Amino acid sequence: MSATPFYDEEESEFYGMCVEDLIRRRQRSHGSAFGMVELGVGTAKTICGVLRRVGASIHVHGFEIDESSFRSARSNIRDHALEDRYRLTHGDFFEAMADLPARGCLISNPPYLPSPDPQIRLPHLWGGEHGDHISRRAIALGFPHVLLMLSSFANPLGLLRWARAHDYSLVHWVARPIEFGDYSSEPKVRRHIDELAAAGRSFVTEDSYLLVGATWSKEGPSADRSAELARLIRGHSVPRHSGSAPSARLTREGISAAVISDRRQDSPMVATDSE
What is the pTM of this model? Predict the structure, then answer.
């Protein structure tokens, strides 16, 4: 149990933007949205904001295992008068899903800090040895649609392969560079990230990594964009102390892309869409 709920404003705002974009794209293409299930609600601030901006037909069932985060989320949902649209369950998401159907769309900004063990500053941010353990479990549940935030230092290429092996197509992605924060810069975590980079499982620069909002689907024939995203991720990789900034560009016709030329907080986002 954590004493204070974890909340990162920059990352949470980006997550909210990705979820809102998913909803609006679904509304444009199908005329309606789907029900959403959220793994790891946190403080619920992010999705409360999304629900206030989109149509009243959108409903979310969120799961939060951390008690202090659950209390904070419950309070925020009440403050936004969203109890009828944002259902909250306190408990283990994966245990609950053993008795529930995997319907609609799963959304999550899952824990992804890599470390040999969970003995880090915030253990509930631990994503397993390679950082992708929770994401793999989520994908394996088989929801028709999945939106996950993935980090370029948490075995991203392995996660893309995992999703393909589970019959998903990557249909949309948005990425942006994020500076290492207090928890990803923890010496134990950062050393492990460097070890993963040496093994080809992590792609970072001296002070930044890519955070990606990735949407997969099992619904209908869709062009898979995994290879394009993989090229971008590989491009965001510079050995520590090299002094060089990364530059990556996708040039395939019909794909919108931006050059990552710096690591400012207002750096251009990189997006592609098969719809």
Answer: 0.87
